[in-house]
Amino acid sequence: MKEQIRHIAGLDRVIHEPGRLMVVALLFAVERADFLYLLNETGLNKGTLSSHLSRLEEEGYIQVEKTYRGKVPQTLLRLTDSGRKAFEQYRKKMKAAL
Amino acid sequence: MERIERLLEKPRAYNNVDGVGELSTGLMTLGFAFLQWMQVHTPGHSAWNSHYAMWIFLAVVGGAIHYGAKAIKERITYPRTGFVEYQKPAAGSQLMAAGMGAAVASAIALFVAVRSRMDLTTPLSFMGLVLAAFYAHGFARTVPWKWAVSGVLAVGSIAIAVLPLTLVGPLARGSSVSFPPKIVAVLWLNFMLFGTAVAISGGISFWLYLRRTRGLARDTQ
After folding, report:
1. Residues of B in contact with A72 (CB under 8 A)
2. B71 within domain boundaries
3. Pick from B8, B79, B218: which is nearest to A29 by CB?
4. What is the pLDDT of residues B91-115, one digit of tens each?
5. Residue closest to B206 by CA, chosen among B83, B60, B85, B75
6. Residue span of the structural domain in which B191 resides
């Protein structure tokens, strides 16, 4: 029991937040994806998703690239190496805690 | 934890969210069935039976399907529901090694069977079940109604396998290839069944996708 609590206490709080966890899990399975894809898959609104992305970028977990697809602006997002490692650690700790 | 694992599966399912993956697979299989029909029903020295004709045909059909699918993704799917770039499988990854191992083992087994004049009619008759399993694993897992397509493929392939030679024989009549008529006919019927069912399923998925995403804003970036 103590061991489980220790694992829960050691969870990465940046990733543990449900909205950010969805974003990181979706990006973990791909090379990169755009804002629109994350918006559709997470069901979050634009403002909430933007603030989660800013928090993840601050932490160095994602890389944001602003570009254009034709004439339409596009925001591409990619999980950084440290983001990948952090998510793998998070999954390990969650598995151990449950 | 289960929810996280489901999220990790989502991007893979997104690859066929518009049904284009199925449409491509179905049309490619129908193209292959057409090629097989031409090879069987034209004289052995015709262009259809030359080595280069098969590669040219597959390159043309494969290229048209590849670029057609790419155009649909870029003009319809990405502006409506977003863009995803998938991870390229790392060279030497376990999956790639397993796939290559299975392909080499199958090729050796087929070579040995043909050399020792083994009767492959029964195992090849059930090849449709392999295609049905491939469809179930690749497409049906993520969309419940597609299990019905898997069922149709499985039942259809068993029905094809047990058809008597008197019924399927005429399909391979005048065949210029050296395989037994039953194998030729059963393979062709399986390709036709799989190609048609998967193309129809892909077409329905594409239509449903267009309806579901009609009018989605383009400027949500």
Report:
1. 79, 218-219, 221
2. yes
3. B8
4. 556 656 776 777 777 777 767 776 7
5. B75
6. 2-85+119-215
Averaged pLDDT, groups of 10, chain B, 221 residues long: 84 91 94 88 82 86 94 93 84 64 75 71 78 88 91 91 80 69 84 95 96 69 50
Q: Does B86 touch chain A (CB under 8 A)?
A: yes
- State how many domains chain B has: 1
B144 within some domain: yes
Whole-structure pTM value: 0.81
Q: Is residue B112 in a domain?
A: no
The tokens of B76 are what?
């319809």
The Cα B35–Cα B48 span in angstroms is 8
Token output for A96: 């151990």
Q: Closest partner residue to B4 among A32, A34, A91, by Cβ? A: A91
Q: Please indicate whether, in this complex, the C-beta atoms of B83 and A75 are within 8 angstroms of each other.
A: no
- Is residue B132 assigned to a domain? yes
The predicted-structure confidence for B137-153, as pLDDT tens digits, reads as follows 888 888 889 999 999 99
For strands A62-69 and B84-85, give the pairing.
Answer: unpaired
B221 touches chain A (CB under 8 A): yes
A62: β partners: A79
Please provide the size of chain A in residues.
98
B14 to chain A, any CB pair closer than 8 A? The answer is yes
- Helix locations, chain B, DSSP H: 2-14, 20-41, 51-72, 78-81, 94-115, 121-125, 127-135, 146-162, 165-168, 181-212
